[in-house]
Amino acid sequence: MPLLSTRRDSDTLDRSSLLRIRQYCLLAMAGIGLLLGSTGCASLSESPADRAGGNQEAENREVGTRTAASAPAPSAGMALPPEYDFPARDTVRVATWNVENFVDTHDDPYVDAERENQPGGVDREVRRFARAVRTLNADIVVLQEIESEAFVQRIVEDHLPDAGYRFFGSTKSPTWFQNVVVMSRYPLGVLRGYADVVTPLEGMQADTGDPAATALINHRLWMVDVRLSASAHLTVVGAHLKAGGSDRDRAWRLGQVRFLHGELTRLLRERPSARVLVAGDLNSLPDSPELRLLLNNPDRPAPDSLTTASAASSPVPPRTAVFADPLHGAPSPTYPSDDPSRQLDYLLPNRPLRDDLRPGSMEVVRPLPAEALTATSDHLPVVATFTVAPGASP
Fold first, then answer.
1. How far is CA 145 from CA 153, 180, 215, in A?
2. Which domain range does residue 13 map to?
3. CA distance 279 to 347
4. Cis peptide leading into residue 211 (ω within 30°)
5. What is the spatial distance between Cα 325 and Cα 279, in angstroms, rounded to a whole number?
6. CA distances to 18, 20, 24, 41, 134 from 32, in Å
7. Does 345 lie in the same domain as 247?
8. How far is Cα 249 from Cα 277, in angstroms, rounded to an integer?
9. SS3 for 357?
């Protein structure tokens, strides 16, 4: 009882007294083996003002540790397909590629766009695409501006049946043909899509005078767990952020980035050591405010005007994920493919995954001869190889 009553009255104690109480508690726990840490003594060293003022990161770690202890594994309840064995190797190669308005020959009656309604030269595009994918030889490929998951599956069946791609995922727009699709040699877990999520256009107003917001292209954002072995997982964030250089476009991207950080915080509270890779066409230059906000990296901080609560037109989600940009500082343009001058496409590993990146493996590549590549897409792919634990069947 004395400890409990002291904890309730802790607002009136000075910091040194609180520290002495915490030390007493720790000694007691060590002596009698009681599990009081997260709900009792651990919080006694901080006053309410301390907790409100600057310890959010520590609180997030504490919450994450407690949640992770009780959260099921990402593949809990899942099984492997018959006759599937995890690849017996210790690396995984990942690619991202915007394939520029790549559509099939079937007219979707719910999509009103000339490119989708009356495509031309699709057979040639399919053959070039299949050649490029074979050359890339990536285990996981994140594609932007492709019509559908079904289209990718058909290409694999017809042109790449021996390439090992058995698993596909996406969130498809009901009214547009530019989607983001993943194709993988490794089994996929849960894919979390955001097609119906409304995100803010930071600092912009709608015609009504209300804060501007939209869900229009958020089908181009998703998060999926990839099962690399019986116990190893990679969380891939597929992204094709809003294009354009206007203030409104940048505000749109900032809203998308803030939302993604909220989702990443949710993930890391459940799995603090999760390995996460953002892959896609981010339509952001390497030193742009929106990319730096996404990186959340103290080495390349976002402008102060974007990191305060007053900077956003909606509640600001916490940012706990920190990403690296391994190509930063080296000329790595990806657009346009015929004469690249700007980097818009990225593979961004979070800190735990950054340590697994094979040195020198991340690069912008040309998987086709120049003329064929330009005819296929106006973007260049980015590839990288990461070390993983050898696969094993569960």
1. 15, 6, 17
2. 2-54
3. 5
4. no
5. 11
6. 21, 19, 12, 14, 61
7. yes
8. 24
9. strand
Token representation of residue 264: 């990443």
Tell me, yes or no, whether 264 and 191 share the same domain. yes
In a domain, 59, yes or no: no
Hey, is 75 helix, strand or coil? coil
User: If pLDDT is split at 50, 70 and 90, which confidence band does 34 have?
Assistant: very low
Predicted local confidence at residue 105, as pLDDT: 83
The answer, yes or no, to whether residue 276 has pLDDT greater than 80, is yes
Residue 130 lies in a domain: yes
Write the pLDDT tens digit of every residue in 324-336.
999 999 999 999 9
Tokens of 189: 């877990």
Q: In this structure, is residue 72 part of a structural domain?
A: no
34 domain residue, yes or no? yes
Same domain membership, residue 157 and residue 25: no
Helix locations, 271-367, DSSP H: 289-295, 351-354
Taking Cα atoms as reference points, which of 324, 382, 329, 327 lies closest to residue 355? 324
Task: Give me 349's structure tokens.
Answer: 């590993």
Strand partners, 224: 191, 236
Whether 26 and 130 map to the same domain: the answer is no
pTM value is 0.80
- The C-alpha atoms of residue 277 and residue 282 are separated, in whole angstroms, by 13
User: 338-361, pLDDT tens digit by residue?
Assistant: 999 999 999 999 999 999 999 999
Number of domains making up the chain: 2
Q: Residues 6 or more apart from 172 whose CB is under 8 A from it? A: 148, 149, 179, 195, 219
Which residue would you say has higher pLDDT here, 294 or 39? 294
Contacts of 213 (CB under 8 A, 6+ apart): 198, 199, 200, 201, 206, 255, 314
3-state secondary structure of 175: coil
Max intra-chain CA distance, the chain: 80
